[in-house]
Write a structure and sequence with these properties.
Elements (H helix, E strand, L loop, with lengths): L2 H4 L3 E2 H8 L3 H9 L7 E2 L5 E3 L1 H15 L4 H10 L3 H35 L5 H4 L9 H8 L1 H12 L3 H24 L6 H15 L9 H13 L1 H4 L5 H18 L1
Antiparallel strand pairs: 1-3, 2-3
């Protein structure tokens, strides 16, 4: 390697310091073939170039999504382009950023008004959690009785119950996104376990057809057709995966 090339890589200690991963973790990634160093120096130290750094960035992103090392290895094997993979990750991160920005804004508004003795507005406090925004659509699709029942159910919940339900929905969405990233098939055991959870979640909402076969399949199609819903699963690719997994589950179990 020329001196110019040598300047373009970093030692394992430098990478550990910059990434927050320990040298031990990086050596383990090497041992299991997840992140081999670009070269081994004469001193026996591992060195990493820009391509290795891009791969490490992908590994760290997938770890934040909750994937285990075997699943991450499968994702990296199936995605050979760093640019394409990171573009997908960037889309997921921006979706999460938008959700957090709205929640942060709502909390900041509440704090400011409480401190200033101003009147609180429910619309501002609950920005991002407005369940009535789909009222007309729900009534057109499943009837006024369906909306009335779900609306009464929601309004009858305590603040803690509402937060618990939201957290459950967010975990489900995150798990779907992680499943897509892992590269598993919609009919795999893991994907079908998620589909079962999804159907159970739907069935917990009064006024919906819940575990009805055609409803579940139709809802999956809507996730793909309507970007508002697809955004919960990382965009079109994620929504398509959810749709396919739900269809397999519905046809086999409902």
């Amino acid at each position: 390697m020329s001196s110019a090339d040598a300047d373009a890589d970093w030692s394992i200690q430098e990478i550990a310091r910059l990434s927050g991963a320990t040298s031990r973790t990086l050596r383990h990634y090497d041992d299991i073939g997840l992140l081999p160093p670009s070269r081994i120096g004469g001193n026996g130290y591992r060195y990493y170039d820009e391509h290795a750094l891009a791969r490490l960035q992908r590994i760290l992103l997938l770890r934040e999504l909750g994937l285990g090392l075997p699943a991450i290895a499968e994702v990296l094997e199936g995605q050979t382009s760093n640019t394409d993979a990171l573009t997908t990750h960037l889309h997921w991160l921006r979706q999460e950023q938008q959700r957090l920005d709205r929640q942060i804004g709502a909390i900041e508004t509440t704090i400011r008004k409480l401190r200033g003795g101003e009147q609180l507005m429910a619309e501002e406090m609950l920005d991002g959690f407005d369940h009535t925004q789909y009222k007309q659509e729900v009534e057109e699709r499943w009837g006024k009785d369906a909306y009335a029942k779900s609306d009464a159910w929601w309004r009858g919940m305590s603040a803690d119950e509402k937060e618990s339900w939201r957290a459950r929905a967010e975990r489900l969405g995150s798990d779907w996104i992680a499943a897509v990233a892992s590269g598993i098939a919609p009919d795999s055991d893991d994907a079908q376990a998620l589909a079962r959870r999804h159907v159970e979640w739907l069935a917990s909402i009064p006024g919906t057809p819940g575990a009805h076969r055609d409803y579940v399949i139709g809802l999956g199609e809507m996730y793909v057709a309507d970007e508002r819903f697809g955004a919960n699963y990382g965009g079109t690719e994620g929504a398509t995966f959810v749709r396919d997994a739900l269809r397999v589950y519905a046809e086999a179990n409902l």
